[in-house]
Design goal:
The complex is a heterotrimer of chains A (403), B (242) and C (420).
Chain A (H helix, E strand, L loop, with lengths): L1 H10 L1 H33 L9 E8 L8 H15 L5 E7 L10 E5 L5 E9 L3 H5 L3 E4 L12 E7 H8 L21 E8 L13 E6 L12 E6 L5 H14 L3 E7 H44 L1 H9 L4 H32 L8 H31 L3 H6 L2
Parallel strand pairs in A: 4-8, 6-7
Antiparallel strand pairs in A: 1-9, 1-10, 2-9, 3-4, 5-7, 6-8
Helix pairs in contact in A: 1-9, 2-7, 2-9, 2-10, 3-6, 7-10, 9-10
Chain B lengths: L1 H8 L10 E13 L4 E13 L3 E5 L6 H8 L7 E6 L2 E2 L5 H11 E4 L11 H10 L6 H14 L15 H13 L5 E5 L7 H18 L2 E5 L3 H4 L4 E6 L2 E3 L1
Parallel strand pairs in B: 3-8, 3-9, 6-7, 7-8
Antiparallel strand pairs in B: 1-2, 1-4, 4-5, 9-10
Chain C lengths: L1 H14 L1 H29 L11 E10 L6 E4 L3 H7 L8 E6 L2 E7 L2 E10 L3 H4 L4 E4 L4 H5 L4 E5 H8 L8 E4 L2 E9 L13 E4 L16 E6 L6 H13 L11 E7 L1 H10 L9 H29 L5 H9 L4 H36 L12 H27 L3 H6 L8
Parallel strand pairs in C: 5-10, 7-9
Antiparallel strand pairs in C: 1-2, 1-11, 1-12, 3-11, 4-5, 6-9, 7-10, 8-9
Helix pairs in contact in C: 1-11, 2-9, 2-11, 2-12, 8-9, 9-12, 11-12
The chains are: A alpha+beta (403), B alpha/beta (242), C alpha+beta (420).
Chain lengths: 403, 242, 420
């Protein structure tokens, strides 16, 4: 049967080639969108590592960024602002950081993994209270505390499980140095891991799952990178009216600074939109393309059947059952689709081989290929059903009528 | 066939006075596919004088349609020479052949081959569409004239599906003569018609031959119709037989 | 001849309505997507209120500083000092203006938090941009010189604060500062990044004067010339002025580069990722846009080609007849391409109507604030050009296949094997 179908398909190669090309490009389009969706969904399933409800981010900046001078004064102002937030009963806890979760901007650096490949990690500042404000889960060692006051020779850091896995595998990361070796062999300050948290995905649910590292900041040392954000946990049910009150109070403390209060839920909505809108837009376009291809394919197959009335009639006259004709036509469609899909898979498989999608698990890749295959075959079957049914209606006598 | 042979034996440039409309010399046609060669015509010589009405007969597959297609420049001989109205067809470029077909030849088919989507008028105008610098008004006038000639001037706005088979063939004849070609090639023009309609069509063709002096070559199965022409050529297995 | 072709084309369209539907669906959908893209591009780059003079306006949008080892770069909009000290009195220009990038700022009004984009400008800004005023007038050079706390707001902001009542003369509070409203303008679409804001106030109302001492900051300079013919001279002068820049700490930063560029060149820079030290590559951006269009059109084109090729059989008889009566292959190619272009034009017309609805729907989402996508004659022409282009693209191959049909086969109705 398959050999017979292959022969039939080959003999009509000119017509079938175009169908195959169309299937091939459809597969590529479907794969691109499905891959994006599967990748995002997979990220969405992973734990976020922090809580965002009833958490507000207060971004405080000197109006025009931070000039190098005056850093000591600025730190004093920052301390005063932090103290001012704690005056209010609505504020349960307050901490400082460099950049709030879901915030614009990022702070990265590179590391070498255990197997020698390079990867990027995210970084941030944290005061001792940040764990409580964001509800971070420490799974090994401990979070920053007064114990770390006055340590010399090294800086304490807390990393997430992903970074621990990447750099140390099964070994215990506590007490290890995670500093990035310098290129010119100058001595680098040790970064000593004091704890491992479950996770902290500051760019949100849909973003890449990556290593993360917190530096401790205690608002004393002005030579360090300065925090820019006060992050507070408010009592549930606190409204925008309090936001105004808080802003007035802070603005009074630092009249020349620009202060911006935003609940994390607001920032989260904006960031999710940034991830979802492109997927939705491409998904919509791809869906339309598929409907178009499906209709087009139905039409082409339909015309093919009408042009082959004689052949089909002859088969019927020689004793082929309706069912057999139906299977033959549908089988041909699926065979052509398989060729298109096969080339598509061959092309698509090159991407991970060439390291284009190094950021995604091979598993995600396999899922995306699998779902795309199901969709394309589904499309081919849908497009083939009506023409195949049409073929079964050919009466054997037509073959003899045909001139 | 003696006259024919005599004509062919003369060199081309000395026969101006003989007024040959069509001359085929040693024409051969072989169809080649991947695996097999099919010989459709071998060593066919034919000379048709201007104003002659001849018929070609033979069983199915004898090559008579192929011969007609070669005369009509719809098909290209594998070897041999085709001369039409003094023009030796040695350049088989598409543009060249198209022009000769348009100016010199009119086709009539067994199954009429009218375009169902076009009215009678538009169908008849088709050959004129491919003439440069002809206005729409002129085309309409010539089409009207041709339809008058076949007695269908009242049906200009009908569509082919609204006409009987005989009427459709008349429209096809009008289309064939609208460009005033010197040669009409008719491939079994009565084959799809009953004998009465067939006779009417034959009368029309004979009239065209006698009154306008149009050279007509007709392929037919029907000995009764062939008898009405001046000469009958017979083909068998791609060869001329007497 | 044309009329004959059109008659046949219409007949063919009416004969197999399902196929006509498939074709028109594909064409109109394809053109809707393209029209949305073009419309977005046009509302970003095309002239429109208030950017009515962009054909003779240049801007300095991004500055790049480098440190002595060239290993570090700092890219940001320019600082006030850079423009104020080094770019005074440029020759061959009509006006020069400074304004900041629009920044989110917040107001609290009757217990509600209102976010708005705030932009600080000088008086000249209002002479380069032609805003359409609903009430009052622009910020003036005196306002900027005297640091008057005045503001121009858009109608959306007026609605939020004053509920569509007259706003001129009343005050609004933004980021803890109070401004007297002097003018109300029609909303400026977010896509017009240079003039866009909700509230415009004088630069000199900044909370501190620190901005006056900075080479890097968040200022963009707009330069309006008498005509675009003056652009080369201005660009040269800008380069000459940059050479005069003195660095406060040459050990840290000692090189500076920037370009005076058109608004399209600015976006091209972002699209192609051209660093600020190199000249923008608008040509490359256009190639990118074109490539994206082609990539998108690939599948619809193959689809239409596929349908058209499959329908060749239907036309076999006609092709045979036309060839017998003297149509050359090229004449037939012309006919079939023309038919396909006609089809795409009909699809284009449907697409134009559909894209009207699609664009309205997009404008209603707040993804492009204040967007009102007008289908102006430019977009119509683009749409027409794209429809014709699409028609040619998807028509030529099937037409060529059709024209190559051997007349004998065509008449016999046996084109199973295709072309001989």
């Amino acid at each position: 049967m398959i050999r017979h179908l292959l022969k039939l398909v080959w003999n009509r190669k000119r017509v079938n080639f175009l169908i195959m090309v169309e299937i091939f490009f459809s597969f590529i389009v479907v794969f691109a969108v499905i891959f994006m969706a599967v990748y995002s969904f997979d990220n969405y399933r992973k734990p976020l590592g922090f809580r965002y409800d009833d958490v507000w981010a207060i971004r405080v900046q000197n109006s025009q960024g931070m000039p190098e001078e005056d850093k000591v004064n600025q730190l004093a102002t920052f301390r005063a602002l932090l103290a001012a937030t704690k005056e209010f009963p609505e504020v349960e806890t307050a901490a400082l950081t460099w950049l709030a979760p879901y915030g614009r901007g990022d702070w990265n650096s590179g590391r070498k993994s255990k197997d020698g490949s390079n990867f990027d990690i995210g970084q941030n500042l944290a005061s001792d209270d940040l764990k409580e404000v964001l509800g971070l889960k420490v799974i090994r060692g401990r979070w920053f505390s007064r114990e770390d006051d006055g340590v010399k020779n090294y800086k304490p850091v807390v990393i997430n499980q992903k970074m621990a896995d990447m750099m140390f595998g099964d070994e215990d990361p506590i007490g290890k140095n995670v500093a990035e070796p310098s290129r010119d062999n100058k001595p680098v300050e040790e970064l000593r891991v004091v704890g491992v948290i479950e996770d902290y995905r500051n760019r949100g649910e849909f973003a890449e799952h990556r290593g993360f590292m917190f530096f401790r900041h205690d608002l004393q040392n002005s030579t360090e990178i300065h925090p820019q954000t006060i992050i507070i946990r408010v009592r549930p049910g606190t409204t925008a009216a309090f936001e105004e009150k808080l802003l007035k109070r802070l603005q009074a403390e630092a009249s020349e600074w620009s202060i911006e209060i935003r609940p994390l839920t607001e920032l989260r909505d904006r960031m999710l939109q940034q991830y979802l809108v492109p997927i939705a837009a491409f998904g919509l376009i791809a869906a339309f393309l598929l409907v178009m291809v499906g209709l087009g394919l139905t039409g082409v197959l339909w015309l093919n059947v009408t042009q082959r009335t004689k052949e089909i009639g002859l088969r019927r006259a020689k004793g082929a059952t309706r069912h057999r004709i139906y299977r033959q036509i549908l089988g041909e469609v699926l065979l052509i689709a398989s060729f298109g899909v096969l080339i598509g898979v061959i092309v698509v498989v090159q991407f991970p081989l060439l390291d284009f999608f190094a950021f995604a698990d091979p598993q995600i890749f396999a899922w995306a290929v699998g779902i795309s295959l199901v969709m394309i075959y589904g499309l081919a079957i849908l497009a083939g059903i009506y023409p195949s049914m049409l073929a079964t209606r050919v009466v054997p006598a037509e073959a003899l009528h045909y001139e | 066939m003696t006259t024919t042979s005599a004509a062919i034996s003369q060199p081309l440039d000395t026969q101006a006075g003989v007024e040959l409309m069509i001359r085929l010399e040693e024409v051969e046609k072989v169809y080649r596919t991947d695996r097999i060669e099919t010989v459709a015509l071998t060593n066919v010589n034919l000379a048709v004088r201007t104003g002659e009405f001849i018929s070609i007969m033979g069983p199915s597959g004898s090559g008579k349609s192929t011969l007609l297609n070669i005369i009509g420049l719809l098909d290209v001989p594998s070897s041999g020479k085709v001369v039409i109205n003094g023009r030796t067809i040695n350049s088989y470029s598409d543009r060249n052949l198209s022009r000769v077909r348009n100016e010199e030849i009119g086709f009539i088919f067994q199954t009429f081959h009218l375009i169902n989507d076009l009215s009678v008028q538009d169908n008849v105008e088709i050959p004129l569409l491919y003439r440069r610098s002809m206005t729409g008004g002129e085309r309409r006038r010539l089409a009207q004239e041709a339809l008058d000639r076949v007695g269908l001037s009242s049906r200009v706005h009908h569509f082919p599906s609204q006409l009987s088979g005989g009427q459709q063939q008349r429209v096809a004849i009008a289309r064939a003569i609208v460009g005033k070609p010197r040669v009409l090639l008719a491939d079994e023009p009565t084959g799809n018609l009953d004998s009465q309609m067939g006779d009417e069509i034959m009368d029309l063709l004979e009239g065209l031959n006698e009154q306008a002096g149009t050279t007509i070559i007709m392929v037919t199965h029907d000995p009764r119709q062939a008898e009405k022409t001046e000469r009958i050529h017979r083909l068998f297995d791609g060869r001329q037989v007497n | 001849m044309l009329i004959n072709y059109l008659k046949i084309a219409v007949k063919v369209l009416m004969r197999r309505k399902f196929f006509t539907f498939i074709s028109l669906f594909a064409i109109s959908f394809t053109l809707v997507i393209l029209m949305i893209g073009v419309s977005l591009l046009d509302s970003t780059f095309g002239p429109g209120i208030p950017e009515t003079r962009i054909d003779r306006t240049l801007g300095i949008f991004k500055i790049e500083m480098r440190c002595p080892e060239e290993e570090c770069t700092w890219i940001s909009p320019g600082g006030y000092k850079l423009f104020n000290r080094y770019f005074q009195n440029l020759p061959n220009i009509e006006l020069m203006s400074l304004s900041t990038e629009a920044d989110l700022s917040y107001s609290y009004h009757q217990g509600e938090k209102i976010p708005s984009y705030l932009k600080r400008t000088d008086g000249e800004f209002w002479k380069i941009m032609e805003f359409s005023f609903v009430e009052g007038g622009p910020i003036t050079t005196e306002d900027e010189r005297n640091a008057n706390f005045v503001a121009v707001i858009n109608t959306a902001t007026r609605h939020k604060f004053f509920g569509d009542q007259q706003a001129v003369g009343r005050t609004i509070e933004v980021d803890g500062q109070r401004f007297r409203v002097v003018g109300v303008v029609d909303n400026v679409p977010y896509l017009r990044q240079i003039p866009f804001a909700d509230i415009w106030v004088p630069i000199s109302t900044y909370k501190t004067g620190l901005y006056r001492d900075q080479l890097m900051g968040n200022f963009i300079a707009l330069i309006m010339a008498p005509s675009s013919a003056d652009f080369p001279a201005i660009r040269e002068e800008v380069q000459a002025r940059l050479k005069q820049v003195e660095f406060p700490d040459p050990k840290q930063w000692n090189q500076i580069s920037a370009h005076a560029e058109t608004f399209f060149e600015r976006s091209s820079r972002e699209m192609t990722g051209t660093p600020a030290r190199e000249a923008s590559q608008p040509l490359r951006a256009m190639v990118l846009i074109f490539a994206a269009i082609m990539l998108f059109m690939l599948l619809p084109t193959i689809n239409l080609i596929n349908i058209n090729v499959s329908r060749i059989m239907e036309r076999a008889g006609e092709i045979g007849v036309r060839k017998s009566f003297g149509a050359s292959s090229w004449t037939l190619v012309g006919q079939f391409v023309l038919e396909n272009v006609l089809l795409t034009l009909i699809g284009g017309a449907i697409g134009l109507i559909l894209s009207r609805f699609a664009l309205d729907a997009i404008a209603k989402t707040d993804f492009f604030p204040y967007a009102s996508f007008q289908l102006n004659y430019r977009i119509f022409l683009y749409g027409l050009a794209m429809a014709v282009f699409f028609g040619l693209l998807s028509g030529v191959y099937p037409a060529w296949r059709m024209s190559r049909l051997h007349p004998v086969d065509a008449l016999r109705g046996a084109v199973q094997g295709g072309v001989r």
